[in-house]
Amino acid sequence: MLPFVDDLMPIGEFSERSGLSPKRLRSYSAGGLLVPAAVDSASGYRYYSSGQLRDAELIDALREAGMPLAGIGALIRDPSREQLDAWARRMEMDATHRQKALDRARRLLSIEATSPPVDDARAGKEPTMRLRTASRTDIGRVRDNNEDTVVSSDHLAAVADGMGGPPGGELASSVATALVAAAFTGSSLDELQAAVRSANRAIWDRAGASGELEGMGTTICAAGLTDDGDLVVVNVGDSRACLWHNGSLTQLTDDHSITAELVRRGMLSAQEALEHPHRGILTRALGVGPDVELDSFAHPAVEGDRVVVCTDGLFNEVPDDEMASLLAATKDLQATADELVELALSRGGRDNVSVVVAEIST
Ligand SMILES: [Mn+2]
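Above: the input entities. Below: the structure tokens describing the complete assembly.
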């Protein structure tokens, strides 16, 4: 692709706009990672194009994540989720390895840590409740890619339903679940809200930095369990959290869609909403603006209660009463998640289908 002449900028200006020093840019150029778009044959001056700003930012992010330059080159030529996942596992292993080495050094020196390591932060407290979770996500029967992501741990159950087409939809959705999972440690509703807000900001910034990703966004529905024993929920968009308590299923969150709003105002029946031409239009999503309005609440967690967090690909195919019968009939969490998804697929699977089933337990 030939850059337009008025799109070119000298290294100093590119350095300023990308936030990378000329020295670092030269090293990327020497390594073949980010080669200037043009060179003045008379003066030898190097010029970069504005389209290279995203690459510069990407290279820098991967470098800060500790990836060697050779690995970055391979990833830029052929970006894949597998490579990023592999690197994430490697980072985790490295961190564990370093932590163990440091612990060994501490024992040899007989110098204890001033503050307990993060993993032991809860050790001093009374044993609290936790979530037992199972999840399943499926591309469905019609779509070409899965823009849903799920995340679950002993204190978080969340789904995100990306939009904007490839590659933005998948990226927005996976950034949202990954950032919320990383930022929410189970301390409070405030923490979960902050996690979702920062995910919104990250997606918004990312979408604006690249033409290819413009228009990407995602829903997020996250249910967390705090150390104080509260069930905390934050929702943006039309994914859903439902509570299974004493044998009945209640929808905890409001969908942020045009049709859901019309149903709430009594202008449309739930059945009509399923076939409405505007059923896919959201009134809120992450990544659409620099700030986002959240729905959030907390209430005391009850042992034995279950929370079902799912994307619209599930509840548009499987009515609430069938979901409730399945929950009543099935004790095993993974079997519940699998059967819910299978049911949605058997009804047509017209969208990606994702669910996390979480049980509050001690
Ligand atoms: Mn969907």
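Note for the figure: The chain has three domains: 5-73, 81-116, 130-361.
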